[in-house]
Amino acid sequence: MTRSSLVQGWPSAKNRVGDADHIHAIGQISLVFNFLEEGFGDLFRLMFPADASYGEALFHKLSNRDRVDMFSAIVRFHEKEAEVSGRLLDGMRYFDICADNRNIVMHSVSQIDDGPSSILRVAKKAARDSRKMNYYDLSLEDLRRVADETAETFLFLFKIFMWLEDRAGGKYPETHSLPDRPIQPRVLSPSRPKEARET
Q1: 121 - beta bridge partners?
Q2: Domain extent for 106
Q3: Does 36 map to a domain?
Q4: How far apart are CA 164 and CA 167, in angstroms?
Q5: Is residue 43 assigned to a domain?
Q6: Chain-centre distance for alpha carbon 119
Q7: Of all residues in the chain, what percent are helix, strand and coil, respectively (each to 5)?
Q8: At residue 9, what are phi and psi to the nearest 5 degrees?
Q9: Number of domains present in the structure of the chain
Q10: DSSP string of 152-178?
Q11: Is there a domain that residue 144 lies in?
Q12: Strand order in the sheet with 109-110
């Protein structure tokens, strides 16, 4: 299938880094992850065992890894209901996967080669060893799945947040039950090296 590199004649050939469909999916990942991050911030502030404004300020100073670790510790120490704790910890695992997938997509560089047009090949330095490059062959289906699973994770955290607010306001448990878990997001994995693909 031939894919267009252009949307209304833009961008120019010298600035083109991928086809329009892949770039559109990458934009969706970026924007929906921002919703997920904000939703996590609301949940962090709600569960933080001190002044909410301090919790909010702290959230914005922490890396995503530190946010997940601290929030998970707060849940383990302060949430008394096992079912609620389980949902929150699942949400953190899902967020972690979404953040990793987003970082792969947003911090990689596209590779211009003779690969199939249905695949966007990108390279990203390994998180734990900047001398090593990881390569990813991203299909349009892969990117759209990442965007959709990120959106599902946002909705999951948002529903938990609303449930916790209801509980805090004394409306628990009559209003609604805890939200169902969506399917766990899939992890983007590096592709095999080019030499291995060719053999």
Answers
A1: 137
A2: 18-114+140-190
A3: yes
A4: 5
A5: yes
A6: 21
A7: 60, 10, 35
A8: 80, 10
A9: 1
A10: HHHHHHHHHHHHHHHHHTT-TTTS-PP
A11: yes
A12: 109-110, 119-125, 133-139
Q: What is the identity of the amino acid at 26?
A: I
CA distances from 118 to 3, 138, 155, 157 (A): 8, 8, 30, 33
Amino acid at 53: S
Task: Report if residue 40 sits inside a domain.
Answer: yes
DSSP states of 108-131: -EE--SSS-TTEEEEEEE-SS-TT
Tokens for 2? 């031939």
Separation of alpha carbons 7 and 69, rounded Å: 41
Q: Is residue 57 exposed (0-12), middle (13-18) or buried (19+ Cβ within 10 Å)?
A: exposed
Tell me what the pLDDT averaged over the chain comes to: 87
Residue 154 makes CB contacts below 8 A (sequence gap 6+) with 32, 35, 36, 39
Q: Within 10 A of 98 (CB to CB), how many other CB atoms are there?
A: 27
**Among 66-80, 98-112, 126-140, 169-183, which range has the highest average pLDDT?**
66-80
pTM, to two decimals:
0.87
Cβ-Cβ contacts under 8 Å for 189 (sequence gap 6 or more): 136
Q: Return the pLDDT at 1.
A: 40
